[in-house]
Design a protein that fits this description.
The chain is mainly alpha-helical and about 200 residues long. It folds into 3 domains: about 70 residues, no CATH class; about 70 residues, no CATH class; about 40 residues. The protein is about 75% helix and about 5% strand. It has a two-stranded antiparallel sheet with strand order 1-2. Strand 1 and strand 2 form a beta hairpin. The termini are far apart.
């Protein structure tokens, strides 16, 4: 049974609300916000105060949004990827709700509770977003980039190219861990010990 609200949604779909209007508004808002924040198109001064070129930023954002809407493949990727990203966010929020059952009666602060767990969540979300977009982008044959990547890994996982990529990734992870982990802590400890050594001790008498 089709409800009146369902008919309205179907009307908006046929009208192009989900394929043209909403992607246009989304791209326009994001590009305009980035231009306003970065001020890459310059600023104007009035009474010793700087203001962004809102008209120029709006024109550039409008043109970019129109070009994105004109490309049917990009709008299809947006319409297919964004609901999955929201689904991923709902899964994460549901998990945090379950974690909150075992937490104290206070604000749930994942970063304060465990910093490494926060980094783990960030990595999982990043990988999830990458996988979602790879599954949404398709070639002319209709195969998604995720499917092509998976097939390539299955075919090349014993080859030298795949082994070299794995070694390269592990090397980068090791360097980052050594730089931000031990190196950062040692630097802080050395700095604090240096300050302590440099501080003159009070003498009696």
């Amino acid at each position: 049974m089709v409800t009146p609200l369902g008919k309205a949604v179907e009307f908006f779909r046929e009208f192009g609300m989900f394929d043209i209007v909403l992607p246009f508004l989304l791209v326009f808002a994001i590009v305009y916000a980035v231009l306003e924040k970065t001020k890459i198109l310059g600023v104007t001064k009035h009474k010793n105060e700087e203001y962004t070129n809102k008209n120029l930023d709006a024109v550039v954002a409008f043109v970019v949004a129109m070009l994105v809407v004109a490309a049917a493949n990009i709008t299809r990727v947006i319409n297919e990827a964004l609901p999955n990203i929201i689904l991923l966010l709902i899964v994460l929020v549901s998990f945090l709700v379950l974690v909150g059952v075992f937490a104290k009666t206070e604000e749930l602060n994942v970063y304060g509770w465990h910093a490494k767990l926060n980094v783990f969540f960030a990595v999982i979300l990043f990988l999830g977003v990458v996988i979602i977009f790879l599954g949404a982008i398709r070639n002319k044959a209709g195969k998604s980039w995720l499917e092509l990547t998976f097939n390539w890994i299955v075919e090349q996982w014993q080859g030298p190219v795949f082994a070299s990529i794995i070694i390269f990734i592990l090397a980068i992870v090791t360097i980052v861990w050594l730089t931000t982990g031990k190196g950062g802590s040692n630097g802080k400890n050395e700095g604090s010990s240096g300050r302590q050594q440099g501080t003159p001790q009070p003498t009696s008498g």
